[in-house]
Amino acid sequence: MTRDLPATLAALAAALPPGVLTPGPDVPARHRQDWSDIDPIEPAALLRPRSTAEVAEALAACNRLGLPVVPQGGLTGLAGGAHPTPGAVVLSLERMQGIEVLDEVGSTMTVLAGTPLAVVQAAAEAVGLHYPVDLGARGSCTIGGNLSTNAGGVRVIRYGMTRENVLGVEFVLADGTVLDLLNTMIKNNAGYDLKHLVIGAEGTLGIVTRAVLRLQPKPASVATALCAVADFAAVTDLLKHLRRRLGPGLTVFEGMWPCYFDFMADRLGTVRRPFAARHGAYVLVEASGFADEAVAQRLEAALAERIDAGAVEDVVIAASERDVRDLWAIREGVSEYGRLLGKIVGYDLGVPIAAMGTLVEAIHRDVEARWPDAHVLCYGHVGDSNLHVVVHIPSAGGHQPHDALDAVVYPLATRFGGTVSAEHGIGILKRAYLPLARSPAAIAVMHRIKGALDPAGILNPGKVLPPAERG
Ligand SMILES: Cc1cc2nc3c(=O)[nH]c(=O)nc-3n(C[C@H](O)[C@H](O)[C@H](O)COP(=O)(O)OP(=O)(O)OC[C@H]3O[C@@H](n4cnc5c(N)ncnc54)[C@H](O)[C@@H]3O)c2cc1C
Q1: What phi, psi does 56 have (nearest 5°)?
Q2: 267: CA distance to ligand 1 center in Å?
Q3: C-beta neighbour count of 358 within 10 angstroms
């Protein structure tokens, strides 16, 4: 598209209430890139609406002017979805924060899209309820970003991903139409459930302005244990056993391969090594319940059975809040990659659980064959078939070979029946690999939905969908 950008921006500024638009050169640095480590780009302008009506005005004007819009939440996304694209304005929800309704009887919370996840969690806890979606970026990521990426996290095994924890949404279409779908009921089968269009759409189909979240009872007690086992077969054996013994009480099942666990235990510098010996795999387990004593006893009994059977080699059970923090510290070491490794290439693969151990072996084999000095760290939400892999090649320094690594890792994941993104989304970084995970027919339907909801293609162009086939 050829257009006179300064004139288009002047027309946009004139169409908006004062204070909504910040011109490109004045845009604060944090809006020039997200956390996915792509080089910063100066957006054409920053839009910071204060209400749904202002979001609608902004989108209607951008649509009329043919100006692309990149939605931004907390910018913690790891697929480049909120990263500015050249010539586009960015629209941040940062002024739209707050909890509007907390209905303890219906167990719902209605929140503005710019509200940080941690604020929502704390508000639920304060009234004895629980918003179970939880991830390491909780202090910075927003509910709008969580919905748009269908964020997962550490308790999916029990409560599902964001999609399963949202009852209603308000969102604005590219032409400025406001869709009020703020349903608060668990059951509502009145026609198509349109909220699912924007959940996981990464800002390409609409801008989320409000959400009705489903809350759960807050568990009265939580027991945490770190288990050491011989190999991945023992990990899956433990998963089957704990599911049978704890049922819905099993709320976390996080696996760590020695490449990850030993690296973090040796290098973090802030944690004691929990086990004297080294083992073939490690699992962080959490059980939740509603009677104080019973949950810890049930978890201990279930683990004792596996130790007696020789299927678990060692266990540390947390006896205090401090122990819980220590046991989580190695798993949450992921936020220290920058300090410990420098530049990394991260993968968020999905793969059927039974194939996960073989996939990890294949990734080690193929990556290390090509880059013998590579650090390959594997861990993940094993109970949800989600494997995270982080690669750092010391000899490559600040120029990690992203494309060459992608060409090795993604085809391996899909060869084992997996997907290129379990929870972080496609954004810009995985767009070229979407066809490995979705059929041509499915991608064609995605293009038709995009064309129907955003015919001018202004919402987050270049994200998620590869260019349409011309027929
Ligand atoms: C330390 C760390 C740990 C993480 N752990 C997890 C994890 O366990 N599980 C997981 O799923 N993710 C995880 N993430 C990724 C990230 O936190 C999530 O993707 C999160 O949901 C992004 O929210 P955000 O508000 O930062 O969105 P942003 O990064 O700002 O945006 C993400 C995408 O959503 C779009 N978007 C944002 N707001 C809106 C809106 N209101 N309307 C429409 N589109 C919008 C953007 O355009 C972009 O495409 C982690 C990230 C970090 C840094």
Answers
A1: -65, -45
A2: 28
A3: 13
Residue 404 — φ and ψ, nearest 5°? Answer: -65, -40
215 CA to centre of own chain: 19
pLDDT at 2: 47
Q: How far is the C-alpha of 171 from the C-alpha of 345, rounded, in Å?
A: 33
- C-alpha torsion sign, points 121, 200, 29, 404: positive
pLDDT mean by block of 10 residues, the chain; 471 residues = 82 97 97 94 98 98 98 97 97 98 98 98 97 95 98 95 98 98 97 98 98 96 96 97 96 97 90 91 96 86 96 95 92 89 95 97 98 97 95 93 97 96 97 96 97 98 84 44
What local confidence, expressed as pLDDT, does residue 471 receive? 44
What is the distance between the alpha carbons of residues 199 and 168, in angstroms, rounded to a whole number? 11
316 DSSP β-pair partners: 226
CB of 71 within 6 A of ligand 1: the answer is: yes
Separation of CA 75 and ligand 1 centre (Å): 6
pLDDT at 470: 55
29 burial level (CB within 10 Å; 0-12, 13-18, 19+): exposed
How far is the C-alpha of 211 from the C-alpha of 144, rounded, in Å? 8
Q: How far apart are CA 364 and CA 358, in angstroms?
A: 10
The answer to whether 256 and 281 are in contact (CB under 8 A) is yes
Quick check: helix, strand or coil at residue 56? helix
CB 274 near ligand 1, within 6 Å: no
Encoded amino acid at 229, one letter: V
Q: Is residue 275 lining ligand 1, measured as CB closer than 6 Å?
A: no
Q: Is the pTM of this model over 0.85?
A: yes
- Find where tokens 């921006």 sit: 9
Eight-state DSSP code of residue 218: P
Q: Where are the alpha helices (DSSP H) in 3-161?
A: 5-15, 52-65, 117-126, 143-149, 156-159
Residue 124, CA distances (Å) to 89, 132, 152, 208, 292 in order: 34, 10, 18, 21, 20
Q: Left, alpha or beta for 467 (phi > 0: left; psi -120 to 50: alpha)?
A: beta
Q: Ligand 1 centre and the CA of 151: distance in Å?
A: 7
CA–CA distance, 48 with 71 (Å, rounded to integer)? 10
Closest atom of ligand 1 to 71 CA is 47
Residue 341 has a CB neighbour count (10 Å cut-off) of 18
Q: At what angle do helices 321-331 and 258-267 cross, to 10 degrees?
A: 120
Q: Which residue matches tokens 């009329």?
A: 64
Q: Which atom of ligand 1 is nearest to the CA of 423?
A: 11
Decide: 312 in ligand 1 pocket, CB within 6 A: no
